[in-house]
């Protein structure tokens, strides 16, 4: 799914980018980070999966958000995310120091989108083997 990135530093931006590449998500990065120039040398295939937004509140819905910052910054962004229309957004936050010390500061499993498929065997009279005839 689409996930929001609110980095505070260039190192954090690349960590969030790596997380997104690992999980296959489309990234929407807050342009207020002023880090756009840091990504200009990336391959076109990576850049194609990135959107920069000056007003991300109108660019949802998001399946998740990775936020870097202190308590004030994180709290402010959380309030903005909570006010978004649509489904609830899972926010993961970490300070700059936490990101520098812990390469698993964000739980990447929470960025994956689970898909479930259900087959109605009642259509075959409850006998699933009848569905293979044909």
Enter the CATH topology name: Rossmann fold
Largest sheet strand order:
3-2-1-4-5
Rg, please?
A: 19 Å
**Helix fraction by DSSP (H/I, runs of at least 4):** 25-40%
Strand content of the residues, in percent? Answer: 15-25%
Tally of DSSP β-strands: 5
Q: CATH first level: which class? A: Alpha Beta
Tell me the CATH superfamily.
Answer: NAD(P)-binding Rossmann-like Domain
Regions with little confidence, pLDDT below 50 for 5+ residues? none
**Biggest beta sheet attributes:** 5 strands, parallel
Shape: elongated
Secondary-structure-derived class: alpha/beta
Give the number of helices.
4
Q: What is the oligomeric state here? A: single chain
Structure summary:
The protein is α/β, with parallel strands linked by helices and 134 residues long.
Explain this structure to me?
By secondary structure, the chain is an alpha/beta fold. The chain has a single domain, classed as NAD(P)-binding Rossmann-like Domain (Rossmann fold), CATH 3.40.50. The protein contains four helices and five strands. The chain has helices at 10-23, 44-47, 71-82, 96-101, and strands at 2-6, 26-30, 50-53, 64-68, 90-94. Strands 3-2-1-4-5 form a five-stranded parallel β-sheet, sandwiched between helices. Strand 2, helix 2 (44-47) and strand 3 (50-53) form a beta-alpha-beta unit. The longest helix is centred in the first third of the chain and has 14 residues, at 10-23. The radius of gyration is 19 Å and the shape is elongated. The model has no long low-confidence stretch (mean pLDDT 82).
């Amino acid at each position: 799914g689409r996930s929001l990135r609110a980095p505070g530093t260039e190192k954090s931006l690349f960590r969030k980018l790596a997380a997104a590449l690992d999980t296959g998500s489309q990234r929407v990065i807050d342009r207020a980070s002023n880090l756009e120039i840091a990504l200009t040398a990336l391959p076109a295939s990576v850049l194609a999966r990135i959107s920069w937004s000056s007003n991300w509140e109108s660019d949802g819905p998001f399946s998740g958000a990775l936020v870097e910052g202190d308590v004030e910054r994180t709290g402010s962004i959380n309030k903005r995310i909570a006010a978004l229309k649509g489904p609830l957004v899972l926010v993961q936050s970490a300070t700059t120091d936490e990101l520098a010390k812990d390469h698993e500061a964000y739980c990447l499993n929470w960025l994956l989108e689970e898909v479930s498929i259900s087959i109605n065997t009642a259509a075959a009279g409850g006998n699933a083997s009848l569905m293979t005839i044909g």
